[in-house]
Model the fold of this input.
Amino acid sequence: YIPNRHLSELPAEMNYKVIYLDQEMTEILPARKAKLKRKVPEGAVPMGVVETIEKERFIIDLWIQSQPNQLVLMLNWKELVASTDEQIAILSNYLNFELNEAKMKKYFQG
Done:
């Protein structure tokens, strides 16, 4: 795992297999709101948090576009949870590594 703010520090001459797990804003916001030191009224959307998430996505997109030789697998959280078998197969194939499907299913399906 590499935080997006450090992607630009990766040596460009190296090859990486990047896995980008995308989530909808509605899936990200509750966890981000919980981390805030101040209370946020129910149903309110803290614009600073939204702007931070959008900035993080922009940085990731820029990095991906600037690295045409890097392999990037884009996965969606909802699809990963909804069709775990198919997504595990895609991930396993991408990594060229046999994954422990039972453990992954247990994690993603609760």
